[in-house]
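Researcher: I'd like a candidate sequence for this fold, 236 residues long. If you have to choose between options at a position, lean toward the conservative one.
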């Protein structure tokens, strides 16, 4: 019996190329910092190191605190001094990246189909960004952030994909077991890892990421249209 449905964002609800997104993100972030006199290359290097620290986080603290500890140490300025520039970026320059992303009305159709079952719906996107960025990207995808019971961000998470603990934390927060949840995503590593703890999965293939060249027939799978029909047909 399903008690929750989880959606990945990038490549799932928001059509995008991961490498293009990452390159444009750092380009736009560096440009914003350059207007404040910060060395763009140094900013990018320090953000990368903070991001790697979050990806390696073993639950010792929130991803937010892990990121800023590393960033402060590497960059030599406090969070209080530098974060206003990041806030400015997410309020403005971050929107430049939207131009690289696709759009499909089926994203909102899928979320609405999930919500129709009356169970919590979670935006389980890798929590390496602040909530403001997660919400904006959901809006780029044409889905209403208010449709989600939980959106994972660096403020409220202490693990990242593909760690199984990331999914366990979500199910614990919802008060259900992993096998009572469905995870929908496009990455055979980051998203289908949920199956290792018993979570039901659906692999969306429009922007498939399969770096390990896994046999995708091992997972229920299909394109965005097939996902919508799959969700409508769910028996909960």
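Model: Candidate sequence:
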């Amino acid at each position: 019996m399903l008690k929750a449905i989880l959606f990945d964002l990038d490549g799932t609800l928001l059509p995008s190329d991961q490498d293009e997104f990452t390159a444009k993100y750092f380009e736009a972030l560096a440009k914003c910092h350059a207007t404040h006199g910060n060395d763009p290359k140094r900013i990018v290097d320090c953000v990368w190191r903070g991001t790697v620290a979050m990806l390696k986080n073993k639950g010792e603290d929130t991803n937010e605190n892990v990121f800023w500890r590393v960033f402060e140490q590497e960059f030599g300025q406090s969070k209080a001094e530098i974060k206003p520039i990041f806030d400015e970026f997410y309020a403005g320059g971050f929107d430049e990246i939207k131009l690289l992303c696709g759009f499909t009305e089926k994203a909102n159709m899928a979320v609405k189909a999930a919500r129709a079952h009356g169970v919590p719906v979670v935006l389980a996107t890798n929590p390496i960004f602040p909530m403001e960025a997660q919400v904006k990207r959901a809006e780029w995808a044409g889905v209403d952030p208010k449709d989600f019971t939980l959106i994972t961000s660096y403020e409220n998470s202490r693990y990242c994909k593909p760690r199984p603990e990331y999914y366990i934390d979500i199910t614990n927060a919802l008060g259900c077991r992993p096998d009572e949840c469905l995870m929908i995503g496009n990455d055979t590593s980051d998203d289908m890892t949920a199956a290792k703890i018993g979570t039901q999965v659906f692999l969306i293939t429009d922007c498939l990421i399969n770096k390990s060249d896994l046999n995708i027939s091992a997972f229920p799978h299909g394109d965005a249209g097939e996902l919508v029909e799959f969700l409508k047909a769910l028996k909960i």
